[in-house]
Specification:
Belongs to the UDP-glucose/GDP-mannose dehydrogenase family. It is an enzyme of class 1 (oxidoreductase). The chain is 43% helix and 14% strand. With 428 residues, the protein is an alpha/beta fold. It has 2 domains: 194 residues, 3-Layer(aba) Sandwich (Rossmann fold); 200 residues, Rossmann fold. Helix 1 links the parallel strand 1 and strand 2. The longest helix is centred in the middle third of the chain and has 31 residues. The structure holds 1,4-dihydronicotinamide adenine dinucleotide and uridine-5'-diphosphate-glucuronic acid (UGA).
Length: 428
């Protein structure tokens, strides 16, 4: 099948590479000319394990362009994978989607399946359908399908090739597009969940909101455990054996970040408020998440009431390991707060960099450089490199002895064994 993927970001690029690997001819289009040029040279502008190799493997079936018209004309299926960021009031900014719709309305002349991959609020795909008709596109010339994406950065290919489900939202009477979607993904083993357009949109938001809720829930429990001297890991092990709960996504720490959880939970809150529903849980989830960094700072102040001039090594800048993505990274929120308190921060991340420079912060190319003469080290992202760090060497390099584990990823006993002092929330 000839497929056009609009947007060459995390989702668009991964989707394009996977579709090419499934045997389709894929045109991946992005308005960012620099990005397209580097992709055409074989460079991958994001760090995602295995993606560079997959793009290279499928280079015969995968091309990149910054002019959508030709690509749209040659394709029978269009995937929209542009960004849907949050506006200041939390609602989703659909400007990029809107501009794609305008382009499609002007360009489509034969039957095309328009698939929305981007995460969009309930009602958006119905709106896309109506907008295309309003713009003069004949209803027989297109179908709109919602096919939300559930990949995680850092394991995007595994998540796409072995998705636990493929969600397809479509109009009630539209069997043609369902058949096409099943054909596109026929080589994948994943089960299909077929629902309405808004049903698919709600599955995506509910999934992210539920996962974010698990994190804020366990962060709240960790706070209570901390005050009673209970190890949070024992609690997670205990509850996680119940299959109704499961042990997954219950790692407490400085909170969730990334390009999706923060914006999607806010967007769902906004969608509820628009219908006069007070989403109490969603609001609490966000409030807890926003205060996690403060919790760790309060702990740090127990040892260093005055942070001014303290040399603090912060290990981790990315919002999670195995990605260079720093969008809404709690590690950066922590660095900013430490900077405001006058600390001297030495940051290191294996892949990510600070998007803008922050006062009092020096970024290092190696972990050892960041650790040298540090009064305290804070683990802000749970990269393997930090989990497997040589603690004896860490002790030798540091001036002080405090290790603050803001991701619960070190073994407290191993840290204590080398003469370092371990501090975390509900881990002893
Ligand atoms: N990043 C992730 O892990 C996941 C993201 N999503 C959703 O997928 C969507 C895309 O997310 P990302 O890939 O992270 O975004 P991104 O911001 O990394 O990439 C979006 C790309 O679209 C391009 N673009 C914008 N307008 C365009 C237009 N009119 N024509 C062509 N290209 C255009 C931009 O230049 C950019 O390269 C969002 O709705 C997001 O919520 C869903 C699941 C996972
Ligand atoms: O819509 C999206 O963009 C995606 O959002 C998340 O994926 P992602 O943001 O890549 O990363 P996650 O692994 O979910 O982690 C999100 C944040 O939660 C934190 N987290 C995760 C798990 C956990 O137990 N504890 C915890 O604090 C991570 O450190 C990170 O900051 C979802 O897991 C994907 O299913 C979804 O497709």
């Amino acid at each position: 099948m000839n497929i056009c993927v609009i947007g060459a970001g995390y989702v668009g690029l991964t989707q394009a590479a996977v579709l090419a690997d499934l045997g389709h001819a894929v045109y991946c289009v992005d308005t960012n000319k620099e990005r397209v040029q580097s992709l055409t040279r074989g460079e991958i502008p994001i760090y995602e394990p295995g993606l560079k190799e997959l793009v290279k493997k499928n280079k015969e079936r995968l091309s990149f362009s910054s002019s959508p018209r030709a690509a749209i004309k040659q394709s029978s299926v269009i995937f929209i994978a542009v960004g849907t960021p949050a506006m200041p009031d939390g609602q989703t900014d659909l400007t990029y989607v809107q501009s794609v719709i305008d382009q499609l309305a002007e360009t489509i002349t034969s039957y095309t399946t328009i698939v929305t991959k981007s995460t969009v609020p309930p009602g958006t795909n119905e709106w896309i359908h109506d907008k295309l008709i309003e713009k003069g596109l004949d209803a027989t010339l297109f179908s709109v399908v919602s096919n939300p994406e559930f990949l995680r950065e850092g394991s995007a290919l595994q998540d796409m090739f072995h998705a636990d489900k493929i969600v397809i939202g479509k109009k009630d009477t539209d069997d043609r597009s369902l058949h096409i979607m099943k054909e596109i993904y026929k080589k994948l083993p994943s089960p299909f969940v077929v629902t309405s357009l808004s049903g698919a949109e709600m599955i995506k938001y509910t999934s992210n909101a539920f996962l974010a809720t698990k994190i804020s829930f366990i962060n709240e429990i960790a706070k209570i455990c901390d005050s009673y001297g209970v190890n949070i890991e024992d609690v997670v092990t205990g509850i996680g054996l119940d299959p109704r709960i499961s042990p997954h996504f219950l790692q407490s720490g400085i909170g969730y970040g990334g390009s999706c959880f923060p914006k999607d939970v806010r967007s769902l809150e906004h969608s509820a408020l628009k219908k006069n529903i007070r989403p109490l849980i969603l609001q609490a989830v966000q409030e807890i998440n926003l205060t996690q960094v403060d919790l760790y700072l309060t702990k740090l102040k127990e040892t260093f009431p005055d942070m001014a001039g303290r040399k603090i090594a912060v290990l981790g800048i990315a919002f999670k390991p195995n990605t260079d993505d720093t969008r809404y990274s709690p590690a950066i929120a922590l660095i900013e707060q430490l900077s405001n308190l006058g600390a001297e921060i030495h940051a290191y991340d294996p892949k990510a960099h600070l998007p803008v420079s922050i006062e009092n912060v020096t970024e290092h190319k190696a972990m050892e450089e960041a650790l040298t003469d540090a009064d305290v080290v804070i683990i802000a992202t749970d990269w393997d490199e930090f989990k497997l760090a040589d603690l004896k060497r860490m002790k030798k390099l540091m001036k002080g002895t405090l290790v603050m584990d803001a991701r619960n990823c070190l073994d407290p006993a191993a840290v204590a064994k080398v003469g370092l002092q371990y501090k975390a929330v509900a881990r002893f």
